């Protein structure tokens, strides 16, 4: 049965704990946590997920580090899972991230999945002291480094971009942290098929999503991974309601990401109580009825 995840992008920070508790009570599987480092006054390239390249937020839109948010929300829940959707990997340091990801996995009792992307803005790389050039190759090595350290024990790495002698971070997570790969380009889909435990979408139309899923299946078969578990997390912008969610499930989506209060006409900055009521209403319509069928 397909899972439902609550997207909390651009949510006021003081609402996160309350939304997590209510989402868990209502039977949602996960919270999807977005990532934004900062708002640059002038952007040098188009944002890739809107028709005109503009950003959907302003300099005053609230954001929180998703790893810190996962730890905070995990502290007030017991079964709800969390995953970054997606953390912009390219502008960060993989050794420091390994410590952070391992900490969140341990603090939440292995209720954390690491959704990663490269990052779209040159400013995020350059102003964090990281070159924008060759970012894809560097991210591939970053994933290798983080997985290596999270695996536990004394490890070393000598690569093209990162180099360190034997080290150990304790405690290692008691279960592997799943890595979900974001991105809609063919190179991103290849990365997901080759090394990911799943693929996670930005906003996408159903017909395009079907094409992506078919491509991922083709690529995974080519890498000899067709029979391994693989999640498809989707933010589909043109399939809603019982019939729409059934279509997504039939297409191969394992995790439908929704923002129920938007469906009810509430904004990102609406009161917590209104959002909680939307969570309960959505769960009654689409989660509890499916469980009883």
In summary, what is this structure?
The chain has 293 residues and is α/β, with parallel strands linked by helices. The chain is built from ten helices and eleven strands.
What does this structure look like?
With 293 residues, this protein is α/β, with parallel strands linked by helices. The protein has helices at 16-26, 66-74, 94-107, 122-126, 135-150, 186-195, 206-222, 241-251, 260-263, 272-292; strands spanning 3-7, 30-33, 81-84, 87-88, 112-117, 155-158, 163-167, 179-182, 198-204, 231-236, 255-258. The model has no long low-confidence stretch (mean pLDDT 96). The strands form two sheets. It has an eight-stranded parallel barrel with strand order 1-2-3-5-8-9-10-11, surrounded by six helices. Strands 6-7 form a two-stranded antiparallel sheet. The relative contact order is 0.14. The chain has a single domain, classed as Luciferase-like domain (TIM Barrel, Alpha-Beta Barrel). β9 (198-204), α7 (206-222) and β10 form a beta-alpha-beta unit. The chain is globular and about 55 Å long.
């Amino acid at each position: 049965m397909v899972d439902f995840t609550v997207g909390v992008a651009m949510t006021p920070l003081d609402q996160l704990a309350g939304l997590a508790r209510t989402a868990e009570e209502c039977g949602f599987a996960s919270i999807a946590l977005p990532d934004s480092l900062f708002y640059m006054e002038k952007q040098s390239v188009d944002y890739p997920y809107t028709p005109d390249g503009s950003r959907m937020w302003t300099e005053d839109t609230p954001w929180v580090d998703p790893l810190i948010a996962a730890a905070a929300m995990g502290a007030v829940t017991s079964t709800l899972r969390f995953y970054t959707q997606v953390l912009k990997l390219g502008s960060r340091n993989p050794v420091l991230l390994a410590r952070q990801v391992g900490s969140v996995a341990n603090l939440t009792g292995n209720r954390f999945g690491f959704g990663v992307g490269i990052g779209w803005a040159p400013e995020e790389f350059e102003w964090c002291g990281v070159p924008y050039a060759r970012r894809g190759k560097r991210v591939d090595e970053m994933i290798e480094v983080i997985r290596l350290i999270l695996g536990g024990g004394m490890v070393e790495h000598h690569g093209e971009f990162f180099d360190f002698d034997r080290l150990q971070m304790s405690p290692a997570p008691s279960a592997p942290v799943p890595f979900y790969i974001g991105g809609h380009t063919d190179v991103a889909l290849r990365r997901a098929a080759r090394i990911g435990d799943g693929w996670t979408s930005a906003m996408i139309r159903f017909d395009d999503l079907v094409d992506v899923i078919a491509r991922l299946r083709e690529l995974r078969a080519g890498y000899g991974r067709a029979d391994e578990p693989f999640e498809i997390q989707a933010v589909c912008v043109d399939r809603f309601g019982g019939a729409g969610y059934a279509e997504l499930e039939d297409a191969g989506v394992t995790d439908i990401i929704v923002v129920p209060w938007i469906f009810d006409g509430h904004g990102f900055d609406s009161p917590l109580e209104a959002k909680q009521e939307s969570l309960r209403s959505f769960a009654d319509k689409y989660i509890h009825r499916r469980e009883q069928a």
